[in-house]
Structure formats: C-alpha cells, structure tokens
Structure prediction request, 197 residues.
Amino acid sequence: MAVTSTTADSPVDICSRALILIGAEPITSFDDGNTEALVSVNMYEDFARAALVNTRWRFATNQAVLNLLSDAPTGRYDRAYQLANDTLMVHAITVSDLQIEYQIYGDMVYADTAESDVVIADYTYRPDEEYWPSYFTVAVEFGLANLFATSIARDASLAQLMSTSARQAMAKARSVDSQQQTTRRIPSSRFITERRS
Prediction:
C-alpha cells in the first residue's frame, strides 16, 4: 500500500507537522491527553493569529463597508464605525478610494467623515487553515517547531535551529506573498526632466 502525502489544512495537522520537525510524536487531536497536545492546544491559536498579522498577507486581506454607529465619539472625532467581526488588524480606511485619518478604539473606528460617506476598511482577517497557501503553512510549522523545541523537547540547540529555520521560512513566505499584487511603478518623470536639463 502506497502512502501519499497530504496538505496540512487543520490546526491539528499543522501542530503535528511542527512536532515531527522536532522529533516528537504527532497528535491526532487536541484532546490526546499528552504534553504535545496540551502545549499545542494552548499555544496554537495565539501563534496563528500573531503570524497572520506580522505582515499584510494578501491571502488574509479583506475589505468591508463599515456600519455607522448611532452614538458619536465622546471627543475629537465626528463619527464612529463598527469594525467587521473577523478583523485582526486594520490597514487602511478609505472614503471614495482616498485614505482618511482614523483611530481604532476597541472594535470601532473613529474618523472625521460626513454622515453620507461610505467608509471602507482594508483589514487582515483569520482565514481557515484550508485556505492558507503552502508557503505560509510551512512558515507557521517551523515557528511552532521553535516553540515546541523550547516547551516540549527543552533543547536549546534544537530551538536555535528551529528559530533560524522559522525566520527563513517566514521571510520566504513574505517574499512569495508580496508578488500577488500589481508591481508598483516608480514615477520617473522627475528623473527624466532632471536628466534632460
């Protein structure tokens, strides 16, 4: 019988692969009752969310029209808007495709806008693991392996190796992910004018 490799598309799969990287036994669920499962269930979600906000990942970016709240801010701003429920980090707030100044207060955005303005947020959200690209999944696995090398294997040299591997995998993931948008052009008109004078 041939064994085939599959993608890691669940929290348990990702934790299991990270455990394998440090030579530990994989888990079959977060309820396994062993040290590996205990550490995994307690650390995974915070680690995943931290990885999702450490750069502006294209696969985890969304836009939403924000709802105007009836209660105005106490001071300094004219309007308050409710952030989308799945918001992890806000990258921009726009009105008519122009970025505006804003402040985040809890789960709200405060801004000086007109009541009729359509306010749109660009933000990072928490996609399910099945939608993570492989480059990000591998980077998270190495990051978790670093954490597990410290908390489960208690091996400083292994932790150092996994830390280096995690940094390299995350840098590669950022590089790959950054290619998923239109390349920005450098305005050259000033340079051309200067050269011709």
Summary: Residues 156-177 form the longest helix (22 residues). Residues 69 and 84 are 13 Å apart (CA to CA).
